[in-house]
Structures are given as structure tokens and as C-alpha cells.
Amino acid sequence: NAANALGTGTVTVGLRGQLINDNATGLNSLAGITLNGVNSTLKLNQPWNKSTASLALSGGSPLVQIGNAASTIGDLSGSAGVIQGSGSSSSLTVNQTTEGVYTGEIGTNLTFIKSGSAPLKLAGIIDPSLKLTLAQGTLSFGNLPVTAASLNQTGGTLSIDLATPLTLTGNLTRSAGTILVNLPASPPAIETPYVLVVYQGTRSGQP
Predict the structure, then answer these.
(1) Are 99 and 77 in contact, with CB atoms under 8 Å apart?
(2) How many helices and strands, by DSSP H and E, does the chain display?
(3) What is the number of alpha carbons within 13 Å of residue 54 lying toward its C-beta?
(4) CA dist 114 to 4, 71, 128, Å?
(5) How many CB atoms lie within 10 A of CB 7?
(6) Closest by alpha carbon to 8, among 28, 34, 25, 24?
(7) Of 13, 29, 184, 201, which has the fewest CB atoms closer than 10 Å, so is most exposed?
(8) With contact defined as beta carbons under 8 Å apart, do 107 and 127 qualify?
(9) CB burial class (10 A; 0-12, 13-18, 19+) of residue 202?
(10) Hey, which bits of 45-95 come out as E strands?
(11) Pseudo-torsion of CA 103, 51, 161, 149, nearest 10°?
């Protein structure tokens, strides 16, 4: 519960371990957190706000539970696990400074904000309720096709495969940034329209 009680290094949570933050600044001194083990858990009852701190879900079946507030971290990576929210105000901003890949699941009750100049690939399962914001850097996907609740692009580069459009059950908002289209191995037909994003709500800004 005490602020900065864990020091300034990287904390590893192992097999069936739990790290629960109940202090508004309890984790903000840490350089990073690694979850590595079956049922290893990070529970943010209070936010974790350090834009240079790393989060790695590296093995087993780790769980990151974002509280009903906004948290901000640095680099995200991992090969397993789940990142999810707990309420309508749950959000996670990732300030990616080195190229990263996260192949675990991400979703329910969560707004995910990609910031930072380095590319981030969400290569695992994306829950259809996930709200996406792209502010900086490149955001790409690996487990295709992808369905999300909404996308708000205020900057950065959205990387989409030509053969598998991004599907949104809600709104598409674009005020800045670019879309990078990845072509298939076989050349696509010329003078043929292709759908990049399917949205079921409203669209604002440039398509």
C-alpha cells in the first residue's frame, strides 16, 4: 500500500503470485513489471502511471486487471496472458519506445491507447469490446481478422492487411495520422476498390 515501497527496479511476479496496487502512486517508482507463471496477476486497483516503465507478460497464464481509471506505462511485450479492464473508465496508455509484440489477449472493459514512436503489434486475440486509440507510432495486428468496438486515430500509422479489413462495431474517428496497407504476396487487381475498415457506427474525419 505504501508509495514507492517496491523501489526502483523491475518486479517479477511468478507462479500464482499477485501484485495488487491500492496506492495512488504505489507502483510509479518501478522500472517495470514482469508476469511469468500460471495465475500470476497484476491488479491495478489504483493506477500505475510511469511512461517509461515496461510491462511484460512472458509465460504461463498471467492476468493484468486495469482498475476503473487510466494507467500509463512504457513498453509492452509478451507471449501469453490477458490484459483487461474492470469498468467503463478503465484505460491503458502504452508509450512504446522500442519495437514490441504482444501475443496475449487484450480486451474486455478496456480503452487501449497506443502512444510512443516505436511500432507495436497486437498479435493475439482482441476482444470485440476493445476501444482503440492510436496517437503515435505504428499499430498493427497479427491475429486476423480483427474486430474492435471503435477506433480513434489522432496520429501515428495504422497498419492494415489488404485482404482482411479491420471491423468496428462502433465509430471510426480520424483526425490525423496515416494508414499503411500491406499487400498480399500475389499482386491485387488494379482498378478494384478494397475495403480497409468496416464500421457500424459513424465516421468522422478523413476516411
Answers:
(1) no
(2) 0, 22
(3) 19
(4) 26, 12, 17
(5) 10
(6) 28
(7) 184
(8) yes
(9) exposed
(10) 54-66, 70-73, 76-78, 82-85, 91-95
(11) 80
CB within 8 Å of 133: residues ≥ 6 apart: 111, 112, 113, 114, 151, 152, 153, 154
Closest-CA residue to 61 (of 39, 78, 42): 39
Task: Enter the pTM of the model.
Answer: 0.94
Q: What is the CB-side half-sphere exposure of residue 199 using CA atoms within 13 A?
A: 16
What does the block give as the cell for 139? Answer: 499499430
Q: 106 is written with which cell numbers? A: 487484450
Taking only the tens of pLDDT, the chain with its 207 residues reads 445 667 889 999 999 999 999 999 999 999 999 999 999 999 999 999 999 999 999 989 999 999 999 999 999 999 999 999 999 999 999 999 999 999 999 989 999 999 999 999 999 999 999 999 999 999 999 988 999 999 999 999 999 999 899 999 999 999 999 999 999 888 888 888 999 999 999 999 976
Asked if residues 142 and 159 have their Cβ atoms less than 8 Å apart, the reply is: no
CB-CB contact of 128 with 147 (8 Å): yes
